[in-house]
Structures are given as structure tokens and as C-alpha cells.
Amino acid sequence: MSVLDSKIPAGPLEKKWEKHKFESKLINPANKRKYEVIIVGSGLAGASAAASLAELGFKVKCFCYQDSPRRAHSIAAQGGINAAKNYQNDGDSVFRLFYDTIKGGDFRAREANVYRLAEISANIIDQCVAQGVPFAREYGGLLANRSFGGAQVSRTFYARGQTGQQLLLGAYSSLNRQIALGNVEMFPRTEMLDLVIVDGHAKGIVTRDMVTGAVQTYAADCVVLASGGYGNVFYLSTNAKGCNVTATYRAHKKGAFFANPCYTQIHPTCIPVSGDYQSKLTLMSESLRNDGRVWAPKNKGEKRPPQQIPEAERDYFLERKYPSFGNLAPRDISSRSAKQVCDEGRGVGESGLGVYLDFEESIKRLGENTVRERYGNLFEIYEQITGDDAYKTPMRIFPAVHYTMGGLWVDYDLMSNVPGLFVLGEANFSDHGANRLGASALMQGLADGYFVIPSTIGNYLTHQLGKRPSVDHPEFKKAEADVRARTSRLLGIKGRRTVDSFHRELGLLMWDLCGMARSEKSLQRALSRIPSLREEFWQNVNVTGGNEELNQSLEKAGRVADFLEFGELMCLDALERKESCGGHFREEFQTPDGEALRNDQEFAHVAAWEYTGPNSKPVRHTEDLQFENVHLATRSYK
Amino acid sequence: MNLKLKVWRQKNAQSEGKIVDYEAQNIPADASFLEMLDILNEQLQAKGEEPVVFDHDCREGICGACSLTINGIAHGPSATTTCQLYMRHFKDGQTIFIEPFRARAFPVVRDLMVNRSALDRIQRAGGFITARVGSAQDANSILVPKKDADRAMEAAACIQCGACVASCPNASAMLFVGAKVTHFASLPQGQPERQQRVLQMVRKMDEEGFGNCSNHYECEAVCPANIPISVIGQLNRDYPAALVKDSVV
Q1: Which site in A120, A619, B89, B104 is 20 to 30 Å from A199, CA atoms measured?
Q2: Do A637 and A333 form a contact (C-beta atoms < 8 A)?
Q3: What's the pLDDT at A2?
Q4: How far apart (Å, rounded) are the C-alpha atoms in residues A51 and A170?
């Protein structure tokens, strides 16, 4: 039997969550205030969890590395949030959202978790509207919807191209209210550097104050990680510069299993790279594919500007290959198609790594004003970055690392295999399988924080009253000493290369060898090169400044050191998953027409990795995925 | 291109700062302003010097972390955030002054990084709608005319960067507070706490040491989120109305 017990409640799919909520342990109001909860991260998942748990009466400490919780990277999500409201009467339902998400995830997610997500989705919209989130409206005052990649119904709610911003500000305002009431203590500019385990339970964290450099420990009755994804292992991604794997990877080294790290989402519509000085990639929301048509020239090495290429010489390759979904094909499929076109030498722009996203037809059909109303701010961003006016010339786009479906393994209660360690949002692995659909990340983050954790946390806490250790416990002292020793080691190397130069080198390596397409050969190469790069880092990095001060070089060094270990785990996971599914495309496993070829016989499971010590191969555990309500089928968007 | 930089360096909040000269060489025109500073920092670190500290995160103009006063203008010459400012807006050989956002309520943390937590505290004082989790009614049972929803969204787009404060001769935060007040005041959900909200936020704003608006409009000119000056008008209408009603009760 697997060591991984997902604790999925028995009973029919549509009754599981209701039944589980009823069976979950309640804590009496007088006792709630005796519990302390640490939350790491203040994005949609972290802020909504902090606000909701505090509202219930728990004492919450919330930590974020930004100067304000409102700057967490959820703020950058553009397109929207899905919900099975069926306000458009176009045939949507909880089951359809569930089905689309399972299928979109290429049948590598848990049915029960995904169904719960679809069920809760409608409550999220209610909650956000009550908070004053200014979603787009129709003239009659009803909420507006739009369609999004991977779906044939209009179930996406949006606030211009700034949905993530507005949802986060909603959660942030609830969080602020609880801070003002004294129920949440907020620690901005504070980074978690280790997890403290006491008698096998997660009971605290070690942090560094990023202004003074002070290393501190905090104890609690449980720890909730909502620290986001690991996309920055690629150096260039659509993540914010500060996004990192440190909180989850440190927890992994303390015993939490890391699930499916090879599942990374490459978003099809980003602004292409323009030079080696580039520090990040900018996403152009997927919503643009509602009205933009993706194409590349039919001829290799085409040098004419796009307007001069006649219609007959254009290849609208998504519409050609996937006639029923067309430009709205899911992200993994759209990204791979763009890569294929560029590999064939038909890419556009100076680097040849780009395809067109063209609004000419929509502008003719809808008028420039309507297009401006829908996407104005995105067109502005595009012009600021590239200097091109997308109302007049097509955008150039190319896939970029955007989201990571893998994360710490959690059960149905969102608790990891380490008792007392809960993981929410992008930091966990649970709901998106091998590929996330557009507008589902916001849905998951808020579902986890507003609705799931408040119901499930009691199942753990009820047995923990009075068991909170003091920070004088030897485990706290040891974890603190380890953090100090590591910091001193980083500062003491005084080598010749900057931290960023290592990060860039790792990122390029990961992109080339473990990016949009992987093979046994490329992964073996990566696995042989990462350890030597890591070794060089620990001998030759130059971290300037000291510990007892604000030191951005030191902050980065700690994160890059973790990426240098984590990258190896990703490649190992990609190597062992001998199939293609969703965002994980192994060149050896594809259909004759280049589509991902799953192997359900051997790989319809979650792979969760156990850390076994430095220089020791991690152990791969599996959790079988049962599909009782949907048929395992080959995904087709044709 | 090559540039002459005059950068504010300050060890911490307690110490005195000064302008230090640097040469930034071989900067591509397609690099962003922050990427130009990245290049400078790589060069400084290669020489064993400490990099210039500045706030930044998303680098796509939405998180509001980046700041910088560039040649005397908050966020520099284009009406965007600093991260969305590209070097093609500068000329080869140009001298660029780079300073932190200056305001009494924004103490310098180090170099170009300032502490803008006063803006968080203003919102804590009342910048929210009390809505308990789990008890909300169906979203479409609250109808909001499109005009009102658009007005709320326009104000809610504020990214809390603080450029409005840094550009104002009075270091006033009224564009920021006005945006919050207008966002909630435009929506039916925001009505029950409307008076209390504006009174508490304005009180906190004054306490934190921000000045008053005297109609310079500098804030609107530099705002990267295009918050219109009319939100200050809304604040100026709501505040006295709330004061009167408050004193009657």
C-alpha cells in the first residue's frame, strides 16, 4: 500500500465535500483563540486563508517577502476567474467545469479535489462581489462573462485585464480588516528560510527580516504554506523577480513530499525575448485569443512585414489543426504548436522565435473601440515593451514559463504528509493535473483559502490543543543555527561570479533540456550538468555585503542555491515519467501527428518525491489516480 | 548607449545619503530602466562593490513595488511605472539623476528603497467592505449599472506605488485615498460603511504625515494607473458630508 493516503471521502462524487464538511472536526469558539496559525505568503491563497481563519477566531501570523501583502504575484494575473454559475445559460454546470478541468489537466488530477473546486467556484464569485471587487458588468447591471482557452462556454468573470489585481485587493482588504482588529499579525519584508518540525509535526518557521537581517523563529500550532510556484527555476518566466521555491523546498527537505515537479506550464502568449540582459518575460493574457488569430507565414525564412504577407501565404495553424477549439486550444497544445512552427523555421521576429497574434479581423468586425475596451491595457503594455502598436500591426508572441502545476503533495484536507503542514494555491500540486486551464489559478487559490482550509484545518488542530512548543525548544534552536550557518557560508565564499550569472545559466539549461519538450537524452544531460553547476556555485559565487543589514544579493543567493537543488529534482521527475501528458512533453512519447501520448497503464498516478539527504537519490512514491466519473480518454480539441 | 548616472546611496534610515556617480556602459535601447540598473549592479558586484538597492518585483507594471525618481520625475519621463520605462526614451551620453521617492511619510530604507507602509495603514483604518466569508448572497442579486462598475474599476486600478505622493509638492496622498474612497463609494456594497470609511481613512492619512491637496495635479500626471484627479473631488465631497452626518448623530 502507498504511504500516501489522500483521505478522499467515500460516497458519490457530488456528496463528498458536503459530507466531509459535516464530518470535519469543529473547534469551539472559546478554544479557537488559543490556536496560533502561521501563514507564509499573502497572495490569493495566503491572504484569503489568513483573513478567513482570523475571522473564525484563530490567531494568525502572516509572512510575505514583499513590502506589502498586496504586492504578491497573484496581482499580475490578467484574464479572469472561472466559476460554474451558468449565468450565460450556455450549458455550463459544476460537472462541466469539473470535466473540463480534469480533461484539461490531461487526466492527471484527483477527481474529488477537482469536483470540490468546481463546486466552490460559484461561492467565490459571490464572496468577491460582496467585498466590492469591480467585475465587468453588462449594461443591465448583471455580471459579464467571457470564454477562455480550453472551454466552450463563457464562464470566466473578469475585471478588465486586471482580474488578479482586483481579486487580490479584495482578499487584501479582508486581511487588512483582520489586521486592524488585531487577529492577524502581518510580517512584510520577511522571508521564511526553514520549517521547524517538533516530534514529527510542523510547529514553526525560521525567518530572516529582510531589512535588518535579523534571524528569528516563530512557533505555532500549524504552518500553512501559500508561497506560490517554482517557475523562476527557469530564470526567465512570467513570475515576479522575487518568486522562489525556498519555502516549499525547505519544507521538502524537512520531510514534505514534492509532487509532480516536472509539470510546468508554458504559456503560449508572451512577449518574445529580445536580448540576454532580459530580466523577465511578460504575459499577454490568454483572453486575447478570444479575438486574436494566431498565425505564422507558410514560407520558411519569410522576411516581409506581416501586412505585406497575403492571406494565402499565412498559416492560421491553431485553426487549421484544431478546428473546433481553434485559437482557444489549451495552453500546452497552443505552446507546442508555436514551438513546432518555429522549429520548422517559420518563426517571426529577429530571433525567429515568435508567431503573430493578429487583431485585424476583430477590429474590422467589432471596431477599434470595442477591442480597446476589452484589451486596452494589454495593448498598452505591449506597446511600452516593444514599441509596436498592436492596433496596426500584429503582436509577436512566444511561449514562456508561466505556472507550475507540481507542488508539495497534499491530501484532501490540503495537509501534506507532514502533520500540521498545510499547503495552498500554486504551492500545492492538487487540482490542475498536468496542465492548468486558463482562469483556474485564481479560482484554486481563493477556493483553498476562503473555503477549504477553514473547514479542514480543524481536523488537525482539534488534537493539538496545548501542544504548541516554545521557541526555546531545541528543534527551534537547531533550525535557527542551521540557517545562520548557511548564511555565513554563502557570505564567506567570496568567489568571482555573481548570483545572477548562476541563475541565468541554470535557467537556460532548464529551458533547453527540461522545457517545452524533454527527452531521456536531454534530461540525462541536465542531470549531469546541474550538480557541477551547483558545486561551482558553492565555490565561486560572490555574495556581497553582510548578514546584519538589507542585502538583496544574499536574498537571491539563498533562493538560487535552492533552485540549483530543485532543478535536479524536476529533471529526475521528468525522466521517470515515461509518457507525455499536459505540460510534460517527452519527445519519445508522441502520436504520429505530434500530440502528447499518455501511458495510463503505468502513469495514471501522482509521483511524490521524498528527500533522503544530500547526495542521496530521492525516493519516488506514487498515489494512483482513480477515475470513476470520467472516462480516461485521449484529449482531443480537433 | 552609455549613460552618466547620479545615484542616491544611503546605507540605512539613520545614516545620511549622498549622490554617487556611475557610468553605465553598453546599455541596449530595448532594455528596461530596471534592467539598466541590473547591468550596473552586475558591474558593481564584479568589482566587489555593493549593488544599488531598489524595490521591484513583477516588472510588468502591476505590483507597484518599483519606485525611483528619475531626473526629478516620479517613475521618470513616460507615464508608466519605472519597470515599464525603456531605455529608448533616453539619449546616448545623457546624465540621469536617480533618487528615491521623497516624502516625510516614506522614510528611506536603503539607497533607492523607501518604506511605504503608511499606505497600508491608511487602508487598514477603513479601506474595506465588511463581508463575512461564506455568507455572501448570489453575485447577480446585486445589480451594478455598468457606468458605476466602470467608475469603481477605474479607481480600483490604483497600484499603490506612491508616485502621487512623491510628485506632490505637499506630499499629499489624496489621489490614493480618493481612489479607495471612490472605488467603494461607486458600488452599492460600499454604502453602509461609506461615511465611517472616509472619516477613518482621512484621519489616518493626516496622522501619517501626508499633506493636503492644493490642486497642482502633479499626481495625476505621473500616475501609472491613470487614476483621474476627479477621485479627489469625490473625496472632497464625501469627507465633509460624512463629518456633518457624524456630528449630527
Answers
A1: A619
A2: yes
A3: 66
A4: 11
Flag if A71 and B58 touch (Cβ within 8 Å): yes
Domain positions in chain A are: 267-401, 484-604
Instruction: Give the phi and the psi of residue B24 in degrees, each rounded to 5.
Output: -105, 120
ipTM here:
0.98
Using CB atoms, pick whichever of A76, A129, A177 lies closest to residue B130.
A177
Decide which of 3.30.300.30, 3.30.70.20, 3.90.700.10, 2.40.128.120 is the CATH code for A267-401: 3.90.700.10
Partners of A500 on chain B (C-beta within 8 Å) are 38, 42
For the whole model, what pTM was predicted?
Answer: 0.96
Residues of chain B with Cβ-Cβ distance to A240 below 8 Å are: 57-59, 63
Burial of B152 (0-12, 13-18, 19+ CB in 10 A): buried
* Cβ partners under 8 Å of residue A601, min gap 6: none
User: How many separate domains does chain B show?
Assistant: 2
Confidence of residue A33 (pLDDT cuts 50, 70, 90): very high
Same domain? B127 vs B241: yes
* B167: containing domain: 116-248
* Any A CB within 8 A of B184 CB: yes
- The per-residue pLDDT for range A51-92, each reduced to its tens digit, is 999 999 999 999 999 999 999 999 999 889 999 999 999 999
Is the domain of B136 the same as that of B211? yes
Strand duo B95-99 + B73-74: pairing: unpaired
Residue B79: per-residue pLDDT? 87
- DSSP strands (E only) in B15-68: 18-24
Q: Which residue of A has its CA nearest to B135?
A: A127
- B11, B59, B113 ranked by CB distance to A280: nearest: B59
- Given CB atoms, is B30 within the 8 Å cutoff of chain A? yes
Residues of B in contact with A169 (CB under 8 A): 156
